[in-house]
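call fold(seq) -> tokens
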Amino acid sequence: MRLRNLTRKILCAAVMLAAASAVSAQNVVKVGMVGEFSGPFAQYGQQILGGMKAYMKIHGDTVAGKKIEIVQKDTGGPAPDVAKRLAQELITRDKVQFLTGIIWTPNANAIAPLSAEAKIPLVIMNAAGAGTSFKAGVTARF
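ret:
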């Protein structure tokens, strides 16, 4: 139930921010998910992604005429250097409008400055370290 509410909030935030930004002219809102999909912590990333996909399956993957597309990257666990590199790829190569899925505080701390510099909202799923929210420009933590 909490995961469904979280997913709903993320998708609503994605649509609202996309509508207010220059990317609103596009028909796709890309959400970059940096998470754990392999290794001992794979269950966390799979549950978050599964919740997002389940919500989209039930409620549709289009909001306000914009198709929501999830682009996922696997950090394999708490690995700040890997998380930073993957977030940079999502921002520059994949052109995502949002970053989400961050589970570990070291990963969130590595990604937050990139998010702020690129002016891309960061939705933190689990990382709860003090000060992480202040390192990013627009941040939400669930």
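The CA atoms of residues 3 and 47 lie 9 Å apart.
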